[in-house]
Write a structure and sequence with these properties.
Blueprint: E1 10-25, E2 31-39, E3 42-49, H1 53-58, E4 64-75, E5 78-84, E6 91-93, H2 112-125, H3 129-139, H4 142-148, H5 164-182, H6 188-197, H7 202-205, E7 206-208, E8 212-214, H8 216-238, H9 243-255, H10 271-295
Parallel strand pairs: 3-5
Antiparallel strand pairs: 1-2, 1-4, 2-3, 4-5, 4-6, 7-8
Amino acid sequence: MFIKDITGNQMVNGLFLIVDSQLRMAKNGTRYLSMRIADRTGQLPVKVWEADDALSELLTTGKIIELQNVEAKIFKDQVQLEWDGRSSQAYRVLTGDEADYSQFLPHTPGNPKEYWNYLSGVMASITNPMYRKVLSVFFADSEFVAEFMKVPAALKRHHAYIGGLAEHTAGVVALCSAAAGYYPRVNRDLLLTGAILHDIGKVKTYRIQNGFEGTDEGKLLGHLVIGVQMVERAWEQVAGGDRLEREKLLHLLVSHHGLMEWGSPIEPLMIEACILHHADNMDAQTNKFLTIMREHQSSSEWAPFDAGLGRSIFVGDCHGTDDSVADCPEGA
C-alpha cells in the first residue's frame, strides 16, 4: 500500500519510513507522538496517542516501521493515521538487517535524464571559454554528476527528494534562459553559468543515508560558502580569465538568495544576479505549490493549511499525482 493510495476511513498496512517524530502535550494534558511517515509516493501525518518517553525513543526519525491495521482518518480535510500508543500491535520496528531505505525516499516526479539532457545542451551553448572550462571541471566528472543528479535541493522546504537538485537547477536555468532572451543587455553566458552553479555547494551539503541529512560541512559552512569555494578551486584549476570575470560569476552565487535576511551576504548588484535570484525563488515557491497539489487527496478544492507557505492554497480539481495540465479543467 502506497501513501498516495491511502484515503480516510480505511485500515492501513505496509512499510513506511519515519521522517519526523516529536513528543508533544495534548490540550487534555496527555502526551502524544506527532510523526510524519513517508514512502516514495508522499508523506502522511501520524498521531500516536497516550505516548511516553519509551515510545518516543523507539519511534524515532529514520526508523522503518511496518504498520498493521492502522486506521486512517480525515482531520481538517487531511488524511492522517492514528493509533493508541499503549498497544504494540499496531506496528513493528524493522531491524537494521531488514531495512532498505532506498524504497522509502521520495524521488523527483520528473525525468532525471531529461533534466541532464537539458542542462548538457545549455552548457554546450555557452561560448565564454572560461565558463565552459569551469563547468567542465564539475560536469565532465562522472562521479560528481552522479551525486549532483541524486541529492535533494533541500531537506524540507522545496525539491526535498532524490533528484531534487537536478530538477531545481534545470528549472532555474530554464527561467534564466527565457529572461536572457527577453531582456536587453543581459550577459547570457554569465547568467546561465551562474544558474547552473548557483546551488553547486549542495552536493557537499546534503547526503542520503537513512533519509536526507545535512553533512557536517554543510551545517558549519552552508551551501553558499561551499559553492564559492568549489567554483574558486575550479577556476584556479583551469587557470586563466580575468579577475572581474571570475568575481562577477562568484557574485551570482553569493547573492542568489536576494536579501541578507534570507542568507545572502550581499544583495544582487548586477542584472544577471537580479534575474538569478528571482528565478531561484520562483522555482522554489512554485515547487511548494506543485508538491501540495500532488499530495492533496481529499475532494476539497482547498488544500489544508501549509506551515511552510503560511496559508492554504486553492487547488480546484488540479490535484493528485498526475501533473498533466490537460487533466485540469479550464479555469481551475
